[in-house]
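Why does residue order matter? Because the sequence determines the fold. Keep that principle in mind as you read this record.
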Amino acid sequence: MNTYAISRTVAQVATSMSLGDVVCQILEKKTVDTTHPSDYCSLVDLNRTSTMASCAILVSGPWAHCQYWLLEKLFAGNSTQSVVKKVLFSACQAPISITLTFSTIQLLQGNGLAGAKKKVLADVPSTWLAGTIVWPAIMGMNFKYVPINHRPLVGAVAGSFWNVYIAYQANKKADGGDKVRLIEEAAQENGVVGVLKRAASRLV
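Structure:
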C-alpha cells in the first residue's frame, strides 16, 4: 500500500459520502422552490455533511482501501472462485464496516460511547440486511471486471447511491422512524432473515 493510493481512495469515499448526505438531506425536506436554486443550499446542514466527510477521512476511506488490498492478498485474481470468496468475505465483514461508520459519526456528533452503542444496536442489523440486496452484485462485477487500482473508485461511485441511505441511517434517531421501513422489510424478505423464516415455516 502506498500513500498516494490511500489518499486517492479516501478522497473518493469522502466525496461519495458527502454527496450522499447532501442528497439525503434534500430528500428529507418536504418541499423546495425549484425556481430558486439558493433554496437548495438552505436545506443542507453543512455541519452534518462535514461530519460525514470527516468520518470518511478518518475511518471509512482508509477502511475501504485496506479491505480491497486485503481481499486481493487473501483471494488473488478474478476467477469465479476468487470473486465468490471476496464477495462472501465482504458480506461477513460489512457489519464491522457499518459499526465503525455509525460509531464514528455518533462520536463526532458528541453523543459519546453510550450514543454509539445505542446506534449500533438499533440500526446496524437492518442496514446490513439492506446491504445484502444491494452490494453482492456490485462487488461481484467490481472484483471480476475492474482492475484493482480502480475498484475503490467504482465502489465509491456505486456507493454514492448507497450513501444516501447510509446518511439517513447514520443521522436518524437511534430509537426509530419508519421512513426506510419498506427498504428494511425488503431486506428481511430477501436477505438472510427472510430465508431462515421461510425455511422454518416449511418445517412447521
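The CA atoms of residues 29 and 43 lie 7 Å apart.
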